Each structure stands twice: as structure tokens, then as C-alpha cells.
Amino acid sequence: MEYEDLLIDSSDDENVVMPPILNILLEDNNENNELVHLPVYGLVGRVGRIQHIKVVNYIENIVRNYIARDFLMHFRLSRAVAYELINQFEVSDIFIEISNHAGNLKITAEKHILCYLWFVGHESASYRDVADRFGVTISCLHTIITRVTQFIMTLAPNVIRYPTAVEKEESATYFLQEKGFPGVIGAIDGSHIRIDKPMEDPDSYINRKSYFSIHMQGTVNHKMKFIDVFIGYPGSVHDARVLKNSTIYADLRQLCGDNYILLGDSAYPCLSQLIVPYKDNGHLTRRQRTFNQKLSSSRVIIENAFGCLKQRFRQLYHFKLRDIVRMVHVIHACCVLHNIANAQDLQFFEDAIDDQGPDIAAQNQQVIDNLPREYETNTQKRDEICLQITRG
Fold first, then answer.
1. How far, in Å, CA of 226 to CA of 302, rounded?
2. I need a surface site. Which of 104, 140, 144, 193 has the fewest CB within 10 A?
3. Per-residue b or e along 355-386, where b marks 16 or more CB atoms closer than 10 Å to that residue's CB
4. Concatenated DSSP letters for 90-145?
5. 338: closest CA among 378, 317, 307?
6. Cα distance between residue 334 and residue 342, in whole Å
């Protein structure tokens, strides 16, 4: 039950029908979230405002009693992983600093992390829903999300990183043995995070499927873990242009050397360290068709990774925040959480949903596919691999 902005004006006491005493949950940052008895008669002579009723001690009374499966479904990480994250946050500079200034009104590290996981894990989780569930104000929740995003981003360099020599060999062995494709250490692709129509320059955010989006470029290894992400271009920008402006493009030589490659789809240029399919012009040879099939079978791992990311952190199906920079940071943080999560957890989550439908507000707009004019192509390495695969 909620009491929304109940106003009592006692300027004309004779006409006022006084309600009984109400239990009102104070809307503040009080860690105890106590219910207080507020006699309405005490409001005589002034206007009193009754705030939302919130869940009382949700973490203490309910969350800690969840069985493992229920905890996982609600918070999208196992209890062990979530509480390891909580322990790290508790000793972080970000939390220590706020603890030194907040006194008795501090929000615990546990509440910070669990609020955050609930928010990113449910596509229908509005600020109001999450704030009421955890007994905090909306402004406090906004601060919590900011703090936890900052904290997770401090973990990013050690969680989303280029593979070591041993890890490269492990990935290459997997792709050769399981997919019959030599030298592969990862796959790269772009994905789109649906957003509401932006206030500024909305047309640039309309992608080729006619909805507003932020572009996310990801590169994953054979375990579907991100080794690089590049997030924030408007949805209209072509995958190849995003690639050319990303760090990994400049690092391809360093990352792959002479022995390894990444796999991409036909949206990307064919390079010595980035191999893409032969363009099907209706005249492909049998070897080229076989090559394309094996590449597609290997490259699908990046599409699966994006699907798993959104299935776990369902806010990414349709991000409804208005601040683009804030959304980019939260998306990046979700990629970090994806890397520390157990991929086997997905069997317990709700089914994936189709987030590719057009947006009515965007359908009538012209979409500009910004393909770079300098579409670089180096097919020699691809031809060598094609010959190697089909000989085998």
C-alpha cells in the first residue's frame, strides 16, 4: 500500500475529517529504515506530507534467507560472487571515503551492491521501484548507482584485458579443435543497446533497424568473456567506423602478432589480424563457402556473448536513463560483471527477449549508414587460411 503526497491542511479545523494514526516509513538514508508512528493530529497548524511506504529491512529479513537459486535470479550473480564484490567494495577508497563522512546515516556496502545488481538485472526496474524495495530515496539510489559504477570501473582494467600468451594459446587450441579454424584468439562485433529518444541530436542515434540505440563494440575469447569493449557511439555509426576509432584497432598488431587473428563479420574490413567472410556475390567457390561456414560457426561466440550479457543484465534490453554518459558507464560496468559471473547461471534466468523491433518514433527517419570511404582490405591472410582449412 502506498500513500502518495497526502496533504492535510488544518486551516479550517471544523471541516477536516481527521484520519487515524498512520504508520509512515521515513524516506531518508537511515540504515535502520524504521517505521515511525506519526500522529496526524500533530500536524494541526501546518501541512504534512506522507511519503511512499517502503519495504522494511528487505536485505536483513528477506535477502539473507533466499536459497541460492532465488538469490541468483534476483541479483543475477551467485551469492558467493556478489558478496566477494561487496567485500571488495567495502575496502575500496570510494566506500571508505563516504564512511568517514556519513556517520550513522551511511548505506552499507551490502546495500550498495545489491541495489545496483537489482537495478541492472531487471528490465522493468525503475528508480522508484528499486528505491522502495531497498528503503532509500530516489536521490540516494542515484548516488548509489554512481558510486558502484565508479567502483566497478576501477576493477575493469584487471577484468576486461587482452589475453596473456598462455591464454591466447588456450583460445587458439579451442577454436582449432572445436571449430577447425586455426589461430583464432577471439571474435569481434557490434551490438546496440536500445534507449529512449535522446534530447540532443536524436537522429544520429537511429540505427539501421530503426530504433534509438548506443553502439557497443565487444571482443570476446572462447569462453565468451570480454577482452575489450568500446562503448558510446550513436547507433547510426557503422561498425567499421567504430572499429577504426577504437583502441583495439590500433592494437591489432600488438594483440595478434603474426600467429593469431580475430574474426569479424562482413561489416568489417579484411585485415591481416582481422579475418572476415568472403562476400557472397553468387560466385563463391566451394572452398570459399566452406571457409565462410567455419568462420560463421566460430564467430557466433560473440553474438552469444552479447545475448548472455543482456539476458543477465536485462536493463540493457532497453535502457531508460536520459544521461548518455551515465548509460555508457553502466553498460561498461555490466561487461565487467559479465566477466566475473558464471556462464552456467544463465539456465536459471528468464528467456532472452527480442530487442530488435523498430521504434515508431524512429521509423520515419532516414538512417545514414556511415561506412568509411577508406574501407581497407587485405585478403592475403584470409586466402592463406582458406587454403589451409580446405586442405585439412
1. 9
2. 104
3. beeebeebeeeebeeeeeeeeeeeeebbeebb
4. HTSHHHHHHHHHHGGGPPPHHHHHHHHHHHHH-TT--HHHHHHHHT--HHHHHHHH
5. 307
6. 14
Taking the C-alpha atoms of residue 136 and residue 72, their distance in angstroms, rounded to an integer, is 22
- Tens digit of each residue's pLDDT, the chain (392 residues): 333 333 333 334 444 443 443 333 333 333 333 343 444 434 444 445 545 667 778 999 999 999 999 999 999 999 999 999 999 999 999 999 987 775 545 899 999 999 999 999 998 888 999 999 999 999 999 999 999 999 999 999 999 999 999 999 999 999 999 999 999 999 999 999 999 999 989 999 999 999 999 999 999 999 999 999 999 999 999 999 999 999 999 999 999 999 999 999 999 999 999 999 999 888 899 999 999 999 999 999 999 999 999 999 999 999 988 899 999 999 999 999 999 999 888 888 888 887 777 877 776 665 555 555 455 577 888 988 898 887 75
Q: Which of 335, 338, 330 is nearest to 141 (CA)?
A: 330
221 contact partners, CB below 8 Å, separation of at least 6 = 163, 167, 171, 185, 186, 227
pTM of the model: 0.84
Asked if residue 263 and residue 115 are part of one domain, the reply reads no
522508484: which residue's cell? 128
Domain membership of residue 384 as a residue range: 162-352+365-390
Contact call for residues 248 and 189 (beta carbons, < 8 A) = no
Cα–Cα distance between 125 and 145 in angstroms, integer?
A: 13
In the chain, helix, strand, coil percent, each to 5? 50, 15, 35
Grid coordinates of 193: 543497446
Helix (H) or strand (E) run with residue 71 in it: helix 68-75
Report if residue 215 sits inside a domain.
Answer: yes
Contacts of 238 (CB under 8 A, 6+ apart): 267, 369, 370, 371, 372
Query: Which of 129, 158, 187 is where one domain is finished?
Result: 158
In a domain, 309, yes or no: yes
